[in-house]
Design brief:
Blueprint lengths: L1 E2 L8 E10 L3 E4 H5 L6 H8 L3 E4 L6 H16 L8 E5 L10 H9 L5 E5 L5 H14 L5 E9 L9 H4 L4 E11 L7 E8 L7 E2 L21 E2 L1 H23 L8 E4 L4 H11 L10 H4 L6 H11 L8 E8 L3 E8 L4
Parallel strand pairs: 5-6, 5-7, 12-13
Antiparallel strand pairs: 1-9, 2-8, 3-4, 7-8, 9-14, 10-11, 13-14
Length: 339
């Protein structure tokens, strides 16, 4: 699915603020050498990851989402009372219900705002942005917070080094606001997609209605399971294709992108996409080495750090692209227009 926001009316949505929160604890590759059969050299050469953040024992996903939401609002000069909607992309919620979004909205004082989670795994932040843009440009909302939040450390198997070394915890997101000036939408275009035939390649078998946790199960089936080879093949293809398809639809080229922020999953996947697209690596921002794969939080976490580093500045055209369980993919081209 490819869409161009703002085509039906004069209301526009813009990316007005960014923020994040990560736990204090750092889990380095040296630490992992004491836990699983691995080495720093093995992890870095295959993934590019050197450390990741891990929640404290008393923290859950909503605790991270709350801190990130507060950071976004503070940096944007917006209050929680002004929010119409809070969307939390996550696949590691505190509970099946209530939603992380509802818990977060209550904690920050966004009383009365609509609040819901969406589940598109690592593509979730871009899916959430698309929802926010649609709500704003249809006239249903004016200010929406989209906060990707994940605690993957609780769903990875410590006995499976192929997945245990990849993931970290964190939350990050964006403030999307309406602007009725009649100009073009700050969100230039989206491509969203999914291929459910490959759903079994990245999944947690136990815990849903197919296999409830109340029934007997193998302990390994309660953790994330990934066919790394198949996910790698899928990711390297869609990371390139989704960007090319979107640019072609918009009549733009790779040269029209000021900054590319890919999902931070694996450096080899990122390098493959960058090479195939022909974009200068100086125009690609990443922080995978310090946070690992934070799923729905990874793209907004990189965006916020790019802003803090002065790499992302007002008016830039930013291409975000990601992939995740489902298997899903998503790309978005947006102008950064901070308050």
């Amino acid at each position: 699915m490819i869409g161009v926001p703002g085509a039906a009316g004069t209301r526009r949505a813009r990316l007005a603020g960014l923020g994040y929160y990560v736990p204090d604890r750092r889990l380095t590759n040296a630490d992992l050498e004491e836990i699983v059969d691995t080495t720093d050299e093995w992890i870095v050469s295959r993934t590019g990851i050197r450390e990741r953040r891990i929640v404290a024992p008393d923290q859950a996903t909503s605790d991270l989402a709350i801190r990130a939401a507060e950071n976004i609002l503070e940096s944007s000069g917006c209050t929680a009372e002004e929010l119409d909607v809070l969307i939390v992309p996550t696949c590691t919620p505190d509970h099946l219900f209530p939603s992380v979004a509802a818990l977060t909205a209550n904690a920050i004082g966004a009383h009365g705002a609509a609040a819901f989670d969406i589940q598109a795994a690592c593509s979730g932040f871009i899916y959430g942005l698309a929802q926010a843009v649609a709500l704003i440009e249809s006239g249903l909302a004016d200010k929406i917070l989209v906060v990707g939040a994940e605690v993957f450390s609780r769903i990875v198997n410590p006995n499976d080094r192929s997945t245990f070394v990849l993931f970290g915890d964190g939350a990050a997101g964006a403030l999307v606001v309406g602007d009725g000036d009649g100009g073009p939408s700050g969100f230039v275009g989206f491509e969203l997609g999914a291929d459910g035939s490959k759903g079994s390649q990245l999944q947690i078998p136990v815990g849903g209605t197919r296999h409830p946790a109340s029934e007997a199960f193998d302990e390994a089936d309660a953790y994330l399971q990934m066919n790394g080879r198949e996910v790698f093949k899928f990711a390297t293809r869609v990371m390139e294709e989704s960007v090319v398809h979107l640019l072609d639809h918009l009549g733009l080229t790779i040269g029209d992108i000021d900054l590319m922020v890919p999902h931070q999953a694996n450096q080899r996947i990122i390098d493959h996409a960058v090479g195939r697209l022909g974009i200068d690596s100086a125009r690609v921002f990443g922080n995978l080495d310090r946070y690992g794969n934070t799923s729905a939080a990874s793209i907004p976490l990189a965006l916020a750090e790019a802003r803090d580093a002065g790499v992302l500045t007002a008016g830039m055209r930013v291409m975000m692209v990601g992939f995740g369980a489902g298997l899903t993919w998503a790309a978005c081209l947006v102008r950064y227009e901070p308050t």
